[in-house]
Amino acid sequence: MKGSIPVPAAASGSAQRLKNAARILCALILLAVPLAPADKFPALAGPYLGQQPPGDKPVLFAPGIMTSEQGYHSSIVFSPDLREAIWCPMSRDGSRLLIARMADGKWSAPRDTDLGLTAGVLDPIYSTDGKKLFFLSFAPDIPGGTARERIWCAERTPGGFSRPTPIDEVVRAHPTHWTFSVARNGNLYFTSEIEGARGGQDIYVARFAGGKYLAPEELGPAVNGAGKDFAPFIAADESYLVFARLGPETKKADLYVSFRKPEGGWTRAQDMGPTVNSTGHDLAPYVSPDGRYLFFVSQRERLNGIYWLNAAIIHKLRPGKFSGGAN
Questions:
Q1: Domains of the chain in sequence order
Q2: Do residues 151 and 171 touch, judged by C-beta distance below 8 A?
Q3: Taking a C-beta distance cutoff of 8 angstroms, is the pair 206, 215 a contact?
Q4: Under a CB-based contact definition with an 8 Å cutoff, are residues 76 and 85 in contact?
Q5: How far apart are CA 243 and CA 203, in angstroms?
Q6: Tens-of-pLDDT digits for all 327 residues of the chain?
């Protein structure tokens, strides 16, 4: 995105502090168009905010509703039962977490939801059972701590969500940026900017075992190339991984896909092609809980719009010697 494409994390000390300050400043200057009053919000009925399902080519999602002037840092996301939707318009302080719910087939007007953090919320994602909400925030993880992007988690409660807590220290030790995702078994796939990352950003997995996250592991050269590899979406069963790549062979972010091999490891990541990728940045992928639609953020027609298309494009790229897998 303009002004938001990740940069290498090799710098340290004052340079690192400048980079963190620049990111915070970027969040501060982004403005969102106010929501229409609840009584003027359009009547929406049916799955996916009542939108006409897309075909095999990307189209803007809910163009009359997703109207933030500065666009979106990540896709809209849906609860596993598809009855709740969360999205975050780019805003002055990064704090606009909007939630809409469907009851009796009709969607409520979205409402601002405050999770109680000083620095707001970015890039939310549900756990596959819908019992947790993960997201990024610049909020310090300890009183008086450094403000930088960290992954946080809130538990679902009868009244909404619990007060968030930062994710395990072994994950927080990795500087991170942009979207991430969680597999059905709890394994967390995220962008790491730790020193030594090939292009300044690599995709790591932190495996969940014994009620805690283990030390993150880099996914290897089949996924992580010489450029920036970031914003991963992992299938619920970990059968495929969709992510964004920037350079060195391209001057823009494109979506790539890699598939897990039956014997373990990953196939070499492949460009998702001109059906998905455009002349602008295409990034921050997300697949709906039912596995039917691929969402992503693109600059093809407007600033940071949310697009969607039939997720069959993913499986058409699967190597022919093996098949299977589901979101």
A1: 14-316 (2.120.10.30)
A2: yes
A3: yes
A4: yes
A5: 9
A6: 433 333 333 334 444 444 444 443 343 333 333 444 445 689 999 999 999 999 999 999 999 898 887 789 899 999 999 999 999 987 655 557 999 999 999 999 999 998 999 888 899 999 999 999 999 999 999 888 999 999 999 999 998 999 999 999 999 999 999 999 999 999 999 999 999 888 899 999 999 999 999 999 999 999 999 999 999 999 999 999 999 999 877 789 999 999 999 999 999 999 999 999 999 999 999 999 999 999 999 999 877 899 999 999 999 999 985 544 445
Name the residue among 305, 277, 322 with its Cα closest to residue 90. 305
Please say whether the beta carbons of 18 and 7 come within 8 A. Answer: no
Under a CB-based contact definition with an 8 Å cutoff, are residues 191 and 180 in contact?
yes
Concatenated DSSP letters of 232-265: EEE-TTSSEEEEEEE-SS-SSEEEEEEEB-TTSS
Instruction: Evaluate whether 195 touches 12 at the Cβ level (below 8 Å).
Output: yes
Q: What angle do CA 71, 309, 224 make, to 5 degrees?
A: 75
DSSP type of residue 169: H
Q: Can you tell me the distance from the alpha carbon of 108 to that of 111, in angstroms, rounded to the nearest whole number? A: 9
**CA dist., res. 278 & res. 298, Å (int):** 8
- Here the tokens at position 288 are 């709906």
Left (φ > 0), alpha (ψ -120 to 50) or beta: where does 171 sit?
A: alpha
**Vertex 27, ends 86 and 156: CA angle to 5°?**
30
